[in-house]
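hey so u asked for the seq, here:
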Amino acid sequence: MTVRTSGARQQSIWASVVSDDAPALRTWLLALGFTEDLLVPGESDGAIHHCQLDWPEGGRIMLSDTGERSTPCRPGTCSLHVVTADPDAVVARAHALRATVVRELADQADYASREFTVADPDGNHWTFATFAG
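ran it, structure tokens below
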């Protein structure tokens, strides 16, 4: 087994996402702009036991195949908020992936944010927004 790591340390809370096809979801997230920090191969051929993906502007998610880890999490049950200074660039990448758009890119009237929401291949919702709290 080969474990790859970048050595970067993220100071934050990390969301854990499970997928019935973690390699496909990993590829999808990399295409949106995440970068890979760590990859631990799974027991079965091509599976992912544990993968850490970083958002370039800060934050990290953990990803694994559903059969690789004991977890109460199920694919398609997460809703994640990713802070970005350039949601227009991210939505362009999402459109290039033919991602399912849940909420179109818009400026919010109630609070200062430009944001959109897409569904990943498992059905999880990912909101990319300028709003950081």
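Strands lie at 4-5, 15-19, 35-41, 48-54, 60-65, 79-83, 100-107, 114-119, 125-129. The mean pLDDT is 91.
lmk if thats what u needed
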